[in-house]
Amino acid sequence: MPFSLSQSSIPVFEQGLTALSAILDKAEAFATAKKIDPSVLPNTRLAPDMFPLARQVQVATDMAKNGGARLAGLEPPKFEDNETTIEQLKARLKKTLDFVKTLDKAKIDASGDREITFPLGPNKGHMKGSDYLNHFVLPNYYFHLTTAYAILRHCGVEIGKLDFLAGIPLRQS
Prior knowledge:
By secondary structure, the protein is mainly α.
């Protein structure tokens, strides 16, 4: 049986968003222990011209919910992008996870050759479903997940690669 679009998307979204939520738990504990103002970490950036942590989390969740919805033939839910605390970012992750779990796998699997239209800045992008997932959604999703991780690691939150990979069904021999 070939690897399907739903297998390439839903578990990936679930694992990454769950891992990011656990990383945010560690960030929250770090901020509390170090007596860091709760607004500092969500506003931290790796570079002046990059999005802060809060926006990285927002875009990662947008990639999961919007990408999954479009592949399933649905209008993506709209989120306000108004999170300013780690607690609010974790609520957004949960809301996204809850939505991703409702997606119809058969509809996602049937979208491989269907044209997907999506916002691309002020323009519209058009791609076949399989290309949309593999060449737009997943690279953007991983970029923003990784950047969120990197911001927190840079701030001194004690996280490592296994935190980023949390939930991957690894087998050891």
